[in-house]
Amino acid sequence: MKDTQQYEGKWEKRWHPLRDEWIVYAAHRNTRPWSFEKKPARKNTAPEYDENCYLCPGNLRVHGDRNPDYKDIFIFDNDHPVVGLHSPTISPQQREFGGGLYRKEKAHGIARVVCYDPRHNVTLSEVSTAQVAKVFLAWKLQMIEFSKMEGIRYTLIFENKGEVVGVSNPHPHCQIYSTDFIFTLIQKEIEQAAWYRKEYNKNIFEQIIVNELEFEKRIIAENSTSIAFIPFFARYAYEVMVMPKRRHATLITMSETELYDLAQAFQEVQRRYDVAFDMSFPYVMTIHQAPIDGKEYPDYHLYISILPPYRQPGLIKYLAGPEIGGGNFMADTIPEEKAQELRSVDLSDFQEYQSPSKE
Ligand SMILES: [Zn+2]
């Protein structure tokens, strides 16, 4: 029998407490960790304004609406909404059939687009931290608006960034889906939080923060009220959770200082990604918040989930048999190694984007 002790800490299963599922880590199969060379963050070469971009100020959108000549953040209802207030109604006899198994309902809700900045070529990594904080404040205001809206139970704020996650338009923006249902993962997290409360009489999210602070080596960014880390149970190689340290069920109750801190930690993670990979790093970002259905969620603690598809430069993590077919993640990396890579990035000469001077 081969001696496999050399693979200790690289080849094991870890349990994901928020999803109640196992992840298999097989980092020993990876040839060796790649090392970063110190490079300046990628230079931005795209123009600030693109006449073919449907998000740039003053441009026409698909159904003929013209964007205003906006100077800051711009929010509008999606022209191709996935959920809408005017989606087709479903007759009562169509709602349930097939022995109670086949059900339909109206695709009710509101879909919005949030442009972070009028400039076509900037990212949240490159703008000022104050600008990122403004975006966070805009999200909070959206949450307040949706929480007062009849028939809305959940609001999902998310950003798909980069061509590898299917977004061809680089204009910095995210989307908001407000729905009459609660997203499955959030529902699962609420159940897990309730289970942990019952079993250990503690808050599951707070315990994760305590654990990560204690271990310390997976922390990517931290300030007085926020923390960002690759969790012990990360599924994606560079997956990061960004959290306010104090519990907030949604952005609605966060103070301006806390929002700024959360924005700062979030941005620092972006910068570490961008410098490490020498590119505008793609990801799927979602803000996990409690439902806004009028009920109390005393054990829910909001966090930003960043899921980048890359597992190393030039290599995408493709979901295949185990993930798609079986529902469990197989990772070729181990969170501690990836955290070490991001922690070692030197941000001292990171430069914010400066508009070319208009003379
Ligand atoms: Zn644009």
Give a description of the structure:
By secondary structure, the protein is an alpha+beta fold. The chain has one domain: 2-Layer Sandwich (HIT family, subunit A), CATH 3.30.428.10. It contains seven helices and 16 strands. The strands form four sheets. It has a nine-stranded antiparallel β-sheet, with helices on both faces. A three-stranded mixed β-sheet has the order 1-2-16, with no helix packed on it. The chain has a two-stranded antiparallel ribbon with strand order 4-5. Strand 4 and strand 5 form a beta hairpin. The longest helix has 22 residues. The radius of gyration is 21 Å and the shape is globular. It starts with 10 loop residues before the first strand and ends in a 16-residue tail after the last helix. The relative contact order is 0.16. The mean pLDDT is 93. Bound molecules: zinc ion.
Secondary structure elements and their pairing?
Blueprint lengths: L10 E6 L4 E6 L47 E4 L14 H4 E2 L4 E2 L5 E7 L13 H19 L6 E8 L11 E7 L4 H17 L3 H12 L3 E4 L3 E4 L10 E5 L11 H22 L5 E6 L14 E5 L2 E3 L2 E2 L4 H6 L2 E3 L3 H9 L16
Parallel strand pairs: 2-16
Antiparallel strand pairs: 1-2, 3-6, 4-5, 6-8, 7-8, 7-12, 9-10, 10-11, 11-13, 12-13, 14-15
Zinc ion binds next to loops.
CATH fold-level label = HIT family, subunit A
Fourth-tier CATH superfamily name? HIT-like
- Tell me roughly what share of residues is in helical segments: 10-25%
Hetero ligands:
zinc ion
How large is the count of helical segments?
A: 7
Q: How would you classify the helix and strand content by structural class?
A: alpha+beta
Write out the strand line-up for the largest beta sheet, numbering strands in chain order.
3-6-8-7-12-13-11-10-9
How many strands? 16
- N-to-C CA distance: 73 Å
Regarding CATH, which class?
Alpha Beta
The run of helices and strands is EEEHEEEHEEHHEEEHEEEEHEH
Looking at the structure, what is the overall shape?
globular
Question: Mean of residue pLDDT?
Answer: 93
Task: Give the count of structural domains.
Answer: 1
Question: Major beta sheet, specifics?
Answer: 9 strands, antiparallel
Radius of gyration: 21 Å
Can you tell me the residue ranges where pLDDT is under 50 for at least 5 consecutive residues?
Answer: none
Strand content: 15-25%
CATH second-level architecture = 2-Layer Sandwich
